Amino acid sequence: MDRKEDARSKKIIFVSSCLLNTNNKVLGLARYPGMCKEVFDTLHKYGLGINQMQCPETLYLGIKRWWATKNLYDNHGFRSFCRELAEQAVTYMEEYERAGYETVGVLSCDGSPTCGVDITSWDDRWGASPVDLSYNDAIVEGSGVYIEELKKAIQARGLKMPPFYGLALDDESVDMNQILSDYEAFIKSICE
């Protein structure tokens, strides 16, 4: 056997931390006990390697943080912090590319103020003293702060932009079977 070849697929997907470890989510939004097993069973099925991205919210504010919407995180300090984390992730992408590997996608959590891909949260009423507001009322179209910075960092390095996908796992009104079915169709499409 040629020692330069082995069983690796050379295909990597970058995954938000909370999908691997729900303990990073803000209290009250975890829909599964540890990790969403079905999400990772699908990645295993298609032979994808996983690169776990760091959780900007946990590193910046800790586990016992308040719920927040994007408008609370969209400030120079937090955006700069997200940019630093994004640069680290993109360094991995660049190194994989140099070795002939492919970053086939970025998997994140829709609805998140930092990691939402197509859906984030925004509500001008959030801020000041914490009050009881409905997070579902704050859901809007758009990307979270970290995802915006990650895309900018990928472009700045001149790398091919991988497809991004957000799982709507924070919204309990969305049927889990439908979420997983749509997700598997996405994974299948990027692996063909």
From TrEMBL:
Highest taxon of the lineage: Bacteria
InterPro entries (UniProt xref): TudS-rel
Species whose genome carries this gene: Hominibacterium faecale
Name the record gives this protein: 2-thiouracil desulfurase family protein
